[in-house]
Design brief:
CATH topology of the largest domain: UDP-n-acetylglucosamine1-carboxyvinyl-transferase, Chain
Number of domains: 2
Largest sheet: 4 strands, mixed
Radius of gyration: 21 Å
Strand content: 15-25%
Helix content: 25-40%
CATH class of the largest domain: Alpha Beta
CATH superfamily of the largest domain: Enolpyruvate transferase domain
Number of helices: 13
Amino acid sequence: MTTKDIHNGDPIAIQPVSRPVSGCIVPPGSKSITNRALIVAALADGVSKLQGTLDSDDTRVMLESLERLGIQWEKLDDSVISISGCGGKIPVSNADLWLENSGTSIRFLTALCSAGHGEFTLDGNKRMRERPIVDLVNALNELGVEARCSLGNNCPPVTIRGAGLPGGTVHIAGNLSSQYLSGLLMTAPYAQEPLEIIVEGELVSIPYIEMTLDVMKRFGVEVETEDLQSYRIRPQRYKGCSYLIEPDASAASYFFAAAAITGGEVTIPGLSRNAMQGDVHFVDVLEEMGCVVTWNDQSITLQGRPLQGIEVDMNAISDTAQTLAAVAVFAEGPTRIRNVAHMRIKETDRVAAVVTELKRLGIRADEHDDGYTIHPGPVKPACVQTYDDHRMAMSFSLIGLKYPGIEIADPGCTAKTYPNYFEDLEKFCASAR
């Protein structure tokens, strides 16, 4: 497959391997950390040098929006960005920001714009206009910022009119997305008075909140929290610094899964048990299914073994739930993935999409309110629909490593977070063909 094949909009065929895949691969930088570091560095005093950044559609729209807000940045090479912070004072008083379908970007920037003085509008594509953001908007209004969903449907576009972020106490729902809370946390040090954030209900994707707190700490800001349900932030200032971003653990899941499915072995440098990203623990799930995992100081190695179906709560690592769906096809016995209802408001309804596409491949899959159950069986040739969802494309490509006749529609949708995914998968598997 070539770059032209992947980005011309036509489906691509996945070539099966004849032997276990083995090797070492470094995925691109973490999208989640990159976009958090960009927000914090943009607010900081002084210049920050971000190394290992991800170059993808999601980070591109973030950088373009920061530029529209008057933040100066420079790309030093493919993965290094120098960014001059604004010291908490957004330079412009009016901006229209276009975020495509990047949830991290629109939610983090909505919170950031609340610290500005003026009017800011944030919008995205058709799917973005279906993804809720009202809980964040309500929280900003509770703090005294004038914020509204312009179409009245609880989704973008969002308009912010403000004169800085007041302090006080605010309540925010935690059951749909941790990104609302992360956005508020990162902007909170620039509130005019101390700010307390209280989470109502279950907080999903807790590792992403821990990631946010870690990035904030690396730039010099402390947050008081005892149970991750309430947070106290006094007025502080981020300090520009040199910051190294880890390889993307969600992206690494596809290569761990490839080794698991084919009985091979893969090493991912740059990740470890101490990684900021909760998705490194996807390998714990594969270990529960029968694989062998070796944790090293600066790498993780996984060896594939015969797989057993399991029942697993993937709330904390839901971005890898689609990857596990592909692995489950090759297990002995059913696999039940639960507590991932919040996946329904991602790039697509990921619960329904996984079930639909597994059925297209001839696999029995049961849809539940909070996830799905997958019953292994023979796979029939089909063209997998991807719903403009990068994780659908990357996850279902793995099934084609063992079964012929699997095509992936719209493979270019992986540009959202991993533009070179199919090229990297081809290189990784080349020796096994």
